[in-house]
# Entry
Amino acid sequence: MPFCSRKCLYCNFFSVQYSDALVDKYIYALLKHALRFKNKKVDSIYIGGGTPSVLSLRQLQRLLESLCKIFDLSEVREFTFELNPESVSKGKLRFLREIGVNRLSIGLQSVEDISLKFLGRIHDFETFCNVYALARQENFDNINIDLIYGLPDQTLEDWERVIKKTLVFDSEHLSLYPLSVNGNTSFYISDIITHDDVQRNMYDETVEILANKGYIHYEVSNWSKQNKESFHNVNYWHNFEYVGLGAGAAGYLERKRYKNVEDISRYIDLLKNGYNVESENEYIDDRIYEMETIILGLRLLDEGLDVKYFENPKHYNVLLECLENKTLKMESGKVRLAKECVFIFNQIALKFA
# Structure
């Protein structure tokens, strides 16, 4: 849901300010979009944003109750809902649990109020604590917490305090991202600077701390307790198909990767008149499929990728180079990213592009 109360200063995702009337129109359009996939069987659902929790309880009920009737949910394993602490109520959490949501992803980003203010977050740490406690009271037993590290002037010791304070909550999953300054953000306009070497040290320290606490580092930016990996996101990294609903959402079906228009009003008008809402699409031929499967699959650190995907001469030669310089390793027919090279994953992945 591409709506927020206010855009965070670092955010470059598509979103607009919440408006009750606009969201009502948008939900109507989105459900018309969903009807194009009526009775399609899905095994996971992910309601992301933006800030889905900014919707009113009435709007959430209309949206989710309708989606549950449109799709075949007989084999759903995971139903994730993203939320920000300031826009959550006990009533919303209770409804989410009743409708079948079995996983929450909470945008905490920092345990320090001064850092939250710097990032442009609306909530404070106390609000998060209250919402997390409410979620547990409503019997949510699979919760992810998002954190951002490598803020300007943040020291390694500062970050250690953040991660250790977060571990007190004993969440089932953690998603940790280095602060990046992207174009078209307030941080970019303000010339905010981050430091790769500092972020690398923080990452390495995180790997050690979380390993000692029993978390499995199953993906480049994600850690979980045993059997609590994000099933929905693992499907992305397996390069499986998915339906993308909503303005700005991406999808991948029948070897076609597509993206919907990043314009709320246009999205609504196109659906009202029965038109296609895709702003771009690409047929994924065998060459692109192999390349994307390699780049995505190498993100799964323990699972790795079957060596059969490196049959293309270019990819095979890059594989040999990476095995020689020990950025990749191979065992029992599986190719994996060397754990000590995770922080430079993007540089390694680009070799296969």
Observations:
- The mean pLDDT is 96.
- The chain has three domains: 3-237, 250-283, 289-350.
- The CA atoms of residues 162 and 181 lie 21 Å apart.
- The two ends are 31 Å apart (CA to CA).
